[in-house]
Amino acid sequence: MGGSASINGNVTLTNGFILADGVLTLNGTTTTNTGTINISGGILSLQNAGALSGAGAITFGGGASQYSASNNVDYSSRIQNSTGAITIDTASQSGTFGSALASSNIGGLTKIGAGSLTLNSAAANAYAGATTINGGTLIVDFANMGSTPANLINSASALVLNGGALQVKQLVTGANPTSQTFAGTSVASGASSIIGTGTSATATLTVEAEGEAALQSACAWARSRSARAWSAVSRLRRRRRPVRG
């Protein structure tokens, strides 16, 4: 496609569509009841609350979906078979993925743009590939996980911080401690941070630190009590293996 294009009216698609590059803006209601919406490149800008109506699958192969003030709809249950990163541009909005991302998605999850994306499914996200934060905040909220609040994100996923923030929200009820493990961590230069929220001292974030010097200077693990926060950062500076707050 290339360049920019828009669909302004209400359209029903029977076979889905492929976005290869450029920017496609959906200003009306676009309904896909069968077929697949394939975002293989470019940016799909959602400017209407009904922009991706229907039950058709959504797959990512190199492009991004972009929120707007009119659309921060949760499409997580429809995202499947992605070979590229599930790339979400929150565009200064706040959105939520309430369904776990399926294991058929093998390109990872990438959060771009200002604003926040919250993962708060009851089951663990099973996507393969890295969890990358290039802007804004990715919130990992364990509130719906029940009595075993561990690894809302697949523990085989590496964490890549590239100017954004990871916020881990602790489940404050239940006997088992909140725990999230990442297989590796890479931090680029820029304002990156890791933030933990909760009232108990039992929450744990475990990372295998790669590029530890960058992690020391760019990341802060914050809790509701500042003494706990500085203690965690201090241990991070001394150790390369699992960090427990």
Describe the model.
With 245 residues, this protein is mostly beta strands. The protein has two domains: 73 residues; 151 residues. 8% of the residues lie in helices and 34% in strands. The protein has two helices and 22 strands. The strands form five sheets. Strands 1-4-7-9-10-12-14-16-19 form a nine-stranded parallel sheet. A six-stranded parallel sheet has the order 11-13-15-17-20-22. The longest helix is centred in the last third of the chain and has 13 residues. The C terminus is likely disordered.
Describe the structure using short key phrases:
245 residues; mainly beta; 2 domains; nine-stranded parallel sheet; six-stranded parallel sheet; 2 helices; 34% strand; disordered C terminus
Structure at a glance:
The N and C termini lie far apart (49 Å). This protein is mostly beta strands.
* Cα-atom radius of gyration: 19 Å
Strand order of the largest sheet: 1-4-7-9-10-12-14-16-19
- Biggest pleated sheet: 9 strands, parallel
Instruction: Please count the beta strands (DSSP E, at least 2 residues each).
Output: 22
Spans where pLDDT lies below 50 across 5 or more residues:
208-245
The arrangement of helices and strands along the chain is EEEEEEEEEEEEEEEEEEEEEHEH
Mean pLDDT: 81
Using the alpha-carbon principal axes, give the shape: globular
Structural class: mainly beta
For the terminal residues, how far apart are their CA atoms? 49 Å
The figure for the number of domains is 2
Strand content: 25-35%
- Helix content range of the residues, please? under 10%
Supply the number of helical segments. 2
